């Protein structure tokens, strides 16, 4: 089973046609000065690259400079907290992946150093989803999750990599461990890139990663895709089954990203950014660029992001507590 960069582009192009396009809101004279998009991770990663793509497009549409400001550290909570305390005037935005929702749960930070996940921000737009995939080095000798579980139950020592303790990939890996009654050893890395490098090299047996990060390796047989973490198969890799299909009906974790603004940001300003972003997400070059990150554009009203965040908080708070996951 393989999926290629070409398949990612075609799937994303098809998905891009489904994005809702609400009417352009009247944001008054906004913006009258440069806008800062805060990214709570270092430069060079997927989140930073996608944010810079959106900043460029917003600059063109708003006729005002939009810059990306990196504020990494503490699992993303430093930058997220900064935005939660910024002036609610539309000139400071947060672009974040879904660890936004779970980071405070796994970091054990005091309230003074963290943020209110559910009530501390105004959702602006859910920009994209990035399905998570479990891949294995060919030397493991498995083609699907049942075969992997059988090996683990048979006494073979196996490991899985994630881009960090407390990440959605870590949660997914431990959730599968518990549901399957196995104990694949977790190996935490600092980012997706290092985890992919080590599973390709065979230093770890398997890894939970985003699709785009491994497409070049699965298409050439250097990695074997075993399962998708979403509830349904992904159009980016339709031949790869889900964990639900493998019998783990409750084990569902995906990745998403989106824009938030500080609580109290005027509704007209939120609507203006939302409307521009919905148009940006339909542009063919944006759809194709997102495809290189294994991402499908989403869009829609701000409430789409708000509902996603609230639903994930409800589910993940229970799962993280049950599994005892911490970002050590």
From TrEMBL:
Protein name: Tripartite tricarboxylate transporter substrate binding protein
Domain of life: Bacteria
Signal peptide: 1-25
Species whose genome carries this gene: Ramlibacter rhizophilus
Keyword 4Fe-4S carried by entry: no
Source species taxonomy: Bacteria, Pseudomonadati, Pseudomonadota, Betaproteobacteria, Burkholderiales
Gene3D superfamilies per UniProt: Bordetella uptake gene, domain 1, Periplasmic binding protein-like II
InterPro entries: BUG, Bug_dom1, TAT_signal
Keywords, comma-separated and alphabetical: Signal
One Pfam family this sequence matches: TctC
Coiled coil: none
Family that this chain belongs to: Belongs to the UPF0065 (bug) family.
Chain segments annotated as transmembrane: none
